[in-house]
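Our working data are protein records whose layout never changes between entries. The record below serves as our worked example for the rest of this section:
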Amino acid sequence: MREFKIASLIMERFAKDTGITDKSKPQRRYLWTDAFGVCNFLSLYEESKDKKYLDLALELVDSVHNTLGKFREDDKRRGYISGLDEESAKIHPTIGGLRIGKKLPQRGKDEPFDEDLEWERDGQYFHYLTKWMHALSRVTQVTGEHKYNLWAMELAKTAFRKFVYFNGKRVGMYWKMSVDLSYPLVTSMGQHDPLDGFITCMEIERVAKENPSVYGALSLENEIDEFYFITKDLNLATADSLGLGGLLSDCVFLSWLDIERYEELFFKMLESFIVGMEYFIKNNYLAYPAYYRLAFRELGLAIGLKGSPILKKQLQNKNLYEKAKLYMDILEKFAPIGEEIENFWIKEENRDNETWIEHKDINEVMLATALLPRGFLEIKAKGV
């Protein structure tokens, strides 16, 4: 299969170049990229049944925890950002959160804010943490080993406690926190962060119910309710390609979960996606030359659009298809846009520019996800 061949080449090269299989190279870890990387290796494993891909997924998980769960080498602090000793940190590797993996150290508490520079500085992003939670939960769904979903649950509880605040008038979320989660670096809220938290916590909770003895008294029911409370009145529409892809991916995730209970929110999400897509198409972003385009953002949209057939099947299984048929017909008309994005970035001449090379890891990994999306888009959780 063409898609499998290209995706496997990309991911095996990624594993070598970033220090997973070639131990002579330094660990080049970046949380968003690595979350998609884990899901890609799971895709390759489920497609081929070749255990080497599962081993790569598990090794990548360990590498992320051993690298992004610790302070940077240029930080005067040492050890795990959770403050735990080596033995305890191995048992609870996510309980202190995980660094983004940016090139520059975080902004100091008293340093002036520089909007452009902040994009290059380390810290913790909530929307990166949710991607990692999803990747960990997917490992449990594929392997049956619940320690990974437990780590996702511990990360979810820490992220909720540190990113969500109540100021006496309203509940909000910080967009970016310091490496040790002790203070906010960017106080505004990411548009879809509460939605991502809501969906991801539902996934983790559903998987946890398959083996409750592993989790003891831990539960995410409160976090699910609180994230829903923040989400339900938000304007979810966006014309950003990555945001659009994430929104449609969340629709797919919800279809695997408690869609009947949250049917009103589901249709709001679909409507918001369609409105945003109309703006995206009108702005004609895909007509720009390759060096003006950010591939990973466009590929995020392609990944979401690849979920349309999965969404259709899930709605049919849950007897919601007739109610959603108009929306699904519109999604089918958008499908060629995802194929156009994917085919554009597969061509080598479109990757031969500084913009692609500067973001090579994330671009290639998300291209692989667009080619084999089921490892990322599926949720296999029966719950109770």
Observations:
- The chain has two domains: 109-231, 235-384.
- The chain is about 60% helix and 5% strand.
- The two ends are 36 Å apart (CA to CA).
- The longest helix spans residues 321-346.
